[in-house]
TrEMBL record:
The record marks 133 as: Lowers pKa of active site Cys. Catalyzes the transfer of endogenously produced octanoic acid from octanoyl-acyl-carrier-protein onto the lipoyl domains of lipoate-dependent enzymes. Lipoyl-ACP can also act as a substrate although octanoyl-ACP is likely to be the physiological substrate. Residues 30-205 form the BPL/LPL catalytic domain. It is found in: Cytoplasm. It holds the Pfam family LplA-B_cat. InterPro entries: aa-tRNA-synth_II/BPL/LPL, BPL_LPL_catalytic, Octanoyltransferase, Octanoyltransferase_CS. The active site is at residue 167. This is Octanoyltransferase.
Length: 205
C-alpha cells in the first residue's frame, strides 16, 4: 500500500481548507491515494459538531466557525502546526481508536525529540505536558475515511485560549513547544511529526 501524499500548504484561511477536505473526501474512490495536509490558519475558533456555545466565554473579533469534527471549541492561529489526515481507514483496516492513538503518539514522539516528556489522558483526547495541553485532536469519519486531525502548539500567541474552555474543559491551561525549546526548526517539527505518524500506518498489510 502506498504511503500518503504529504502536502505542506503553509498559511491558509480555514474555510477553504475545510471545503477542500470535504471535496477531496466526497470525490475520492477506492484507488485514491491518502493525503496528509500540513497547514497553519489565521486566527479562528472552530467549534465541534456537538460543541456547546457556552464554552466560548467572551465574544471577540476572532471568527467562530462551526465544523463537523468531534470535540468542543478550540483555537487556531499562526505558529500552530496543523496536520489534517485524509485516510481510507477501511482500506488500511484500522479503527478510529487506532487512528487517535497514532496521532497522539506522533506528537509524543516529536516532543521526545526535543527532550519533552508528554502523555495522553484517557478521558480527554490530546497530548499534555505537565498537565497543560499542547496538542488538540478532532476527527470526522465519512464512509470510512477521515477528515481533520491534530493541532500542535509550536510558537504562537496562546492568549485567545483564555476566551474559551479549551476542548470543553474549564480552566484547562495550554502550552507550546516554544516554552521548552529555545530554537525551533519548523521544517524539522513537520518532518518528525509526519514521519512518526506515517510510520505507524499498516502500509504493508
Amino acid at each position: 500500500m502506498d504511503k500518503p501524499i504529504i502536502k505542506n500548504l503553509g498559511l491558509q484561511p480555514y474555510l477553504p481548507i475545510y471545503d477542500n477536505m470535504h471535496h477531496f473526501t466526497l470525490t475520492r474512490n477506492a484507488d485514491t491515494l491518502d493525503e496528509i495536509w500540513l497547514v497553519e490558519h489565521p486566527a479562528v475558533f472552530t467549534q465541534g459538531k456537538v460543541g456547546k456555545p457556552e464554552h466560548l466565554l467572551h465574544q471577540t473579533p476572532i471568527p467562530v466557525v462551526q465544523t463537523d469534527r468531534g470535540g468542543q471549541i478550540t483555537y487556531h492561529a499562526p505558529g500552530q502546526q496543523i496536520m489534517y489526515i485524509l485516510l481510507d481507514l477501511k482500506r488500511l483496516k484500522i479503527g478510529i481508536r487506532d487512528t487517535v492513538s497514532f496521532l497522539e503518539y506522533s506528537v509524543i514522539t516529536t516532543l521526545e525529540h526535543y527532550g519533552i516528556a508528554a502523555k495522553t489522558k484517557a478521558d480527554a483526547p490530546g497530548v499534555y505536558v505537565n498537565n497543560q495541553k499542547i496538542c488538540s485532536l478532532g476527527l470526522h469519519i465519512h464512509r470510512g475515511c477521515t477528515l481533520h486531525g491534530l493541532a500542535l502548539n509550536v510558537d504562537m500567541d496562546l492568549t485567545p485560549f483564555n476566551d474559551i474552555n479549551p476542548c470543553g474543559y474549564a480552566g484547562l491551561q495550554m502550552t507550546q513547544l516554544k516554552n521548552y525549546v529555545t530554537t525551533i526548526n519548523r521544517d524539522e517539527v513537520r518532518q518528525i511529526l509526519t514521519e512518526s505518524f506515517v510510520g505507524q500506518l499498516p502500509l504493508n498489510s
